[in-house]
Amino acid sequence: MTEKCAWFINLSDDEHAAQAAALQLKPYGLPIRGQRWPQGLAWLAAAQEAASANAAVTVVFGAANRYADPALRRDLALFRLMLQTQAGHAINGFTLLTDDTPDAPQAMPGLAVLDDWTPLSAGWPAKLIARAYAPIAPRWPAQLGLHAHERLGVWLETHPQPGHTASGALVGVAGNQAKIDFHAVGPKGGLPSTTDNQYELRGLQFTVADTAFEAWGLRNLIPADERYYVRLEGDPDLLAIGSLPDGEPDDVALIRLG
């Protein structure tokens, strides 16, 4: 396997911050690779490139307000989920913002996929090395993965009760005109070739935290080693993930992309 590396993502044309960080990290022996974002690449191609390079940790450089842009954060969240899925373990992230603190974004409910990306501070190289070799798993209330193919589309892989059997699964999406258009149950780690969908729900609408969701669900019993897969049309701002006991939505966990 390719030697582990730190994957640098530069959000601007100015390479000074990334070059300075590379000099600080060089004595620690972790190779550095990366890209300008998006450099003509969609997040799908970027995640594939980072996975091929065996990226063990990511570092984002750029202006604070650029990093706060919702569309960029959605793309970075999808990049992170796909990179983790291909790596088979957590990939932690760091940020070095090169100007003032960004304007506070509009408050949104739930945890965010990028919430645990750590701002760089004094002594950061040692912490980055530690995360590269012993990553800390995100504390999301549901297991998340992502599979993306130019032909098959973008699929969210999830389990609403990590480590336990779930009595069904439900995924809702909100924002950015996103929808779900297909679903399946199968082994974790890859799209199933067949599925036996039991008691389907499609286009279910509900409101949580003043946010309207459209959801799909199945009442299949989902063991800990299987997953619920939904194909996404568009990039949602918010996910609502829960189980489906007795054919009715259970309490849902809210997770923001970005």
Explain what you see:
Helices cover 20% and strands 38% of the residues. By secondary structure, it is α/β, with parallel strands linked by helices. It has a 6-stranded mixed sheet, with no helix packed on it. The chain has a 5-stranded parallel sheet with strand order 2-1-3-4-6, sandwiched between helices. A hairpin with a 3-residue loop joins strand 7 and strand 8. The chain is globular, with a radius of gyration of 19 Å.
**Beta strand count:** 15
- Assess the beta-strand content as a share of residues: 35-45%
pLDDT average, as an integer?
92
- Low-confidence runs of at least 5 consecutive residues: none
Order of helices and strands, N to C? Answer: EHEHEHHEEEHEEEEEEEEE
**Helix/strand/pairing category:** alpha/beta
Shape: globular
- Quaternary organization: single chain
Main β sheet profile: 6 strands, mixed
Number of helices: 5
**Rg:** 19 Å
Please bin the fraction of helical residues.
Answer: 10-25%
Distance between the termini: 30 Å
Strand order of the largest sheet: 5-15-14-9-12-11
